[in-house]
Amino acid sequence: MYTLYFVVGSQDLYGDECLRQVAADAQRMTAFFNEQFGKDVQVKLLPTVVNSATCIADLRQVSCDDDCIGVMTWMHTFSPAKMWIKGLQELRKPLLHLHTQANEKLPYDSIDMDFMNLNQAAHGDREYGFILSRMRIPHQVVAGYYEHKDVLERIKQFIDVARAIHFSKHLKVASFGNNMREVAVTDGDRVESQIRYGWECNYFAVGDLVATINKVTEAEIDAKMAEYTSKYTMKTSNVAAVREQAKYEVGLEKFMSLRGIQAFADTFQDLHGFKQLPGIAAQNLMGKGIGFGPEGDYKISALSAVLMKMAEGRPGATGFIEDYTYDLTSGQELELASHMLEVPVAFAATKPEIDVLPLGIGGKEDPARLIFDGVQGDGIQVTMVDMGTHFRLICADIELVKQPQPMPKLPVARIMYRHKPNFSIGTEGWCLAGGAHHSVVSTALTREDIALFARLTGTELICIGDDTTPECLAKLALIK
Ligand code: MN
Hints:
Rossmann fold, binds manganese (II) ion, six-stranded antiparallel barrel
């Protein structure tokens, strides 16, 4: 169970009675937060900050607790912000500044100086906001009465993003094979990825993975086949080819779980010892939250795992996809996104069918894969590129739509979407921003989620959507 710490600020100027009330209010609020968010996190209250020493002790505890995803802070009274400097210097977790009050309404009939001194977030949170800004600490601010639905929803959003950052900081990514020869956008600075996002990206020899795969037993393959047939429709009669994929998946799962790896990248240029490209094996693993990147794309593998973690518990689909081809009918432009095989099963609008069909690339045997039509609804498309000096996130609003006509000869799963605000601005913006052909599409996450992730990780973000104009594109073209 994850922990979200709650730290309340005050000072010892007001006397014990005031501090007792601050502590009592903080406990009552903590109990309320646990009622609201108990499924996701345990909210734990730390001692009220009354001086620099208590602040240092609290924020050290936050930083050193490995189960902690973040900290929520609020100034019940005025809390002189120099008391917070050294504690904040110790903070290594996402920070939410909750700008609220213990009381919703002003007690107009009874308010006196004592009440006003006790309940002065309007005063204390401004002092605190200054020091966060002065220290350039990336953080989120949520303002409003803490019991209000909109405030609770935004705290929940912080929890989802902080959980994803926590996951990111612990993420290990396996690269089987290197980056695909000559491909630029899939490559990147793995040292910087680890410094900024925590991703431990390491290379593993394909031969070592194949050795694990070759030790998979018939009984293990039987169990995996039972999983496949319970979830999917077996369309093919070539069961041997599906069993080959089942063997790959069991082997991959073993290899990764032994090493605590939760995302992987492969490349079809380096699959010695595989008879088929991993198809259903990769698709079914993605369905369990395992990140995947083809062509050696470690960034999209890691980012897909992180965004799947962010979307956990929300309705909708999240997963890796590749931009493929367009329908350019004027005014009705659509994109068809897919991959050679590895389309996440999360995107299935129909029960996936297992089929074995030829693949015109890679020089291997016909691979088994899951085929289905994609989900519909509003969504986002997110990618990450390495600009040399920094990483850049690009987030485009899209609308996933039903494919207008059947595609009986296309032997892969696919999704289709409409760009916003329209085809030309949407795709021109993506190209100007340097957006990759690999991305994560989600109908569970929003631009605001990605913006918060970008802010808390200090990542550049370019957004494209209904608010993007030709003037925006002109400015975008000038960004260095
Ligand atoms: Mn690709």
